[in-house]
Amino acid sequence: MAKLSVDKAFFKAKFHAKNGEIEEAKKVYQAVLQAFPRNKRAQQGLVALNKPKQSAATQGLPQDTAKKLLNLYNQGQLVAAAEQAQTLTVLYPESFVFWTILGAAQNGLGKFIEAAAAFKKVTELNPNSADGYYNMGNALKKQGKLEEAIEAYNKALAIKPDNADCYYNMGNALKDQGKLDEAIEAFNKAVAIKPDYVEAFRSMGNALSEQGKLEEAIGAFNKVLAIKPDNAEFYYNLGNLNHRVSAHNQVGRLYASALDLSPFDARYALAKLSRSLPIVLSKETNENPLKSFDDELESFCVWSKPTKAELDLRENFGSSLPFYLAYYPENMVERLTLYSDAVNFADLDRVVNSKRKDAKIKIGIITGHLSQHSVFNVLTKGILSNLDRLQFSVHAYITNENGENEQIKDSLDFDDFFSISSENQKRDMAEKILADELDVLWYPEVGMEPVTAWLSVQRLAPVQFASWGHPITTGFKNMDYFLSGELIEGVDSEKHYREKLIKLPGTGCVTEFGKWASKPGDWEKSYLHENELTFLIPQSPFKFHPHNDEIIVQIAKEIPEAKFLLPDSEKFPGSIELILGRLKDRFEQDDVPFNDRFVTFPWMKTDEFLSLMEKADIYLDLPTFSGYTTAWLGINCGIPIVTFEGEFMRQRLASGLLRKIGITDTIAQSLEDYVLIARRLASLRDEQLLWEEYRRKIKNAALMADNDFSVVRAFEKFVLQAVK
Question: What is the DSSP letter of 52?
């Protein structure tokens, strides 16, 4: 090869290299070396091509430019930082420094797709960049791409296993996936690396709480407070958890500490008031919790007056509600009126006049229970399904959007349907209701969930009324009427309501038992024996008021062979143990054997619970609070129900149902009568043929409880008169 040819070859090799055609350039140098094995220029050219190409970060990266770009980002000028970084990644495409700043700026601007792409480029340029994978994981998590985010976090941890933040963020991604065990494991690794990691302990506590491991969750939050004792929110969270496990002696102190740190936070003040009532009254509980509530109510009324408190109350009313007042057998009108007036705001008493443009009357319904729940199955479904739609249009406002809502919505053919999935959207719902210019607005279950409560304190329609989804007066002055039933109200019952009481026919509801079938569950097969006399007490823990204890003791005393079946509670761990502890003391006081008298059963699916009621012998409806839905299911299973017809509607639900179907011989007018009825039924059970006939009689009579369309016609008449 002549010298001129060699020069041409070098020129050609450089041309290929400049254009990125590295392999072609190598071939040229190799051809030169075949002809001239000692040619230094060819050797040097080939060595240079075989060297790993250095990134711009090490190839004369303009340090001043990088510093200025970083300053822009640190000063919060994210748009400018993102624009300049984008330009610099074009000029220096292999500088992972510029790609990192670009990703961080895009992330700060909420452009998570672009941020993830930039961080991915960082990991391609530098596969050992733990920060690159970590940042990419964060951007993917914010897009909701949880599986990809977790994969990125794991790659980051493989490179840098001591990154506590990475374990923390991965734990949150796993928690969002519902993988709570794995999430808790990740949080534990985070705090092992960083023992004062407050956020990780808090997230761990929340995950444990979701699992129902409330005592462990309390332990996690106690560690949070040990590290950061000046955070009001942590005291509030810990107060909520202690309330759920019935650690009542701790609850008030924790909420008070939260208020000391943040004096005008309405959530803390509302919780301190509402949760002065324990979920379960144990033997250690104050003998008169209502006195504690009254003291707290007086303090709350004073607290609510300053402007700062009022402003926060407007936003956060409903976060905690005095739900448990309904489970004390006293008239609550005065208490709930004081409470209502403390949270009522003059500008929300807006005048809303009817602006009817159509021939139809516009009925709105606000509910958080458009689902297979007692409020829907008993109170709203029958009326909504049978309204005269030539006279009325129905507008539904659903406070907890889910898939079940959609299925039911289609079956009810609403004229308008508006739902929200978050409490943060409650103002949108209020604006929608006002814009719809309704004639009447129906609240079936005020007092059971936050958004409904927040809306119900306002005037959103010319006529507003509640019904007995939560069977107690609302106390709100903007609630005009309370719809109940003739058979579930006693003498002078109007004095139990701030609203004007309207008594619909019968029990005030339209039900249809339908095609629910029973199916024995595993618990029943293992623990329920035919030869045992069983009294079923299917009540939630907060309905076991101590006033009922004497009746249970007397029945146990007079019927020594009786066993009592009580439901356990996943929602309130430890509550049934507190109730049994209280009952044990009461049994021992009367020298009544306690051991082996009580059997607890777990939460059951509807078909399993129906089977349990078919097999159990006698249903005890507790005197202080009666249950309608469970009693309705019970009569359809033919189980005899012993009930006490008390003063308040919430003590008369089962008796009203039994009167409706003509089975009145198990309705007690006194507590002594209640025990006598239980003893009579236990004796009747010994006569097998008579017992079977009696149960068939109840089951056949249950048909009379359903499809009472006179309730619908009375409801329509009420609406027409109220609008006029």
Answer: P
Residue 533 vs residues 429, 556, 564, 565, 678: alpha-carbon distances, Å: 52, 11, 9, 10, 11
Structure tokens at 330: 């006293």
Q: Is the pLDDT of residue 285 over 80?
A: no
pLDDT in tens, 381-398: 999 999 999 999 999 999
Weakest mean pLDDT among 20-24, 78-82, 392-396: 20-24
Asked if residues 445 and 375 have their Cβ atoms less than 8 Å apart, the reply is: yes
- What Rg do the C-alpha atoms of the chain give, in angstroms? 35
Q: Specify the pLDDT at position 53.
A: 47
In the prediction, which pLDDT does 698 show? 98
347-393+434-504 CATH pick, 3.40.50.300, 3.80.30.20, 3.40.50.720, 3.40.50.11380 = 3.40.50.11380
3-state helix, strand, coil in the chain (%, to 5): 60, 10, 35
pLDDT at residue 28 above 50? yes
> Does position 649 have pLDDT exceeding 70, yes or no?
yes
pLDDT at 358: 65
Contacts of 614 (CB under 8 A, 6+ apart): 518, 637, 638, 639
**Taking phi first (over 0 means left), then psi (-120 to 50 degrees means alpha), and beta for anything else, what does residue 20 get?**
left
According to the model, what pLDDT value does residue 56 have? 40
- Domain at 230-332, CATH from 1.25.40, 2.60.40, 3.30.1910, 3.30.360: 1.25.40
Structure tokens that stand for 369 in this block: 């229970």
The helix or strand, by DSSP H or E, that contains position 41, with its residue range, turns out to be: helix 40-50
Amino acid at 392: F
Residue with tokens 């004639």: 439
d(CA 497, CA 334): 9
**Tens digit of each residue's pLDDT (9 = 90 or more) over 157-178:** 999 999 999 999 999 999 999 9
For residue 270, give the 3-state DSSP assignment: helix
CA dihedral 688, 692, 693, 695 (to 10 degrees): 140
Is residue 220 predicted with pLDDT exceeding 70?
yes
- 347-393+434-504 and 522-705: identical CATH topology: yes
Which residue is it, tokens 């045992």? 532
Q: Which residues, at least 6 apart from 86, have a Cβ–Cβ distance to it below 8 Å?
A: 102
Query: In the chain, what percentage of residues exceed pLDDT 70?
Result: 95
Cα gap 45→35, rounded to integer Å: 15
User: What is the residue extent of each domain of the chain?
Assistant: 3-50, 230-332, 347-393+434-504, 522-705
Total residue length of the chain = 724
The predicted structure's pLDDT at residue 347: 57
CATH code, 522-705: 3.40.50.2000
Would the pLDDT of 313 be above 70?
Answer: yes
Amino acid sitting at position 462: P
How far apart CA 502 and CA 487 sit, in angstroms, is: 12
Angle (deg, nearest 10), helices 3-18 and 22-35: 160
Question: In sequence order, which residues have a C-beta less than 8 Å from that of residue 458 and are 6 or more positions away?
Answer: 348, 349, 350, 430, 478
Rounded Cα distance, 306 and 263, in Å: 11
Instruction: Quickly tell me which residue has 């929608």 as its tokens.
Output: 432
3-state secondary structure (DSSP) of residue 718: helix
Task: Kindly give the pairing relationship between strand 463-467 and strand 440-443.
Answer: parallel
Helix (H/G/I), strand (E/B), else coil: 129? coil
CA-based nearest residue to 194, from 165, 169, 218: 165
**Environment class of 245 (CB within 10 Å of its CB; exposed 0-12, middle 13-18, buried 19+):** buried
Contact criterion met (CB below 8 Å) for 289 and 278: yes
pLDDT of 594 over the 90 cut: yes
Backbone angles phi, psi at 114, to 5 degrees: -65, -40
Site of tokens 């009420």: 718
Average of per-residue pLDDT across 200-215: 93
* Residue-averaged pLDDT of the chain: 91
**pTM: predicted TM-score of the whole model, two decimal places:** 0.82
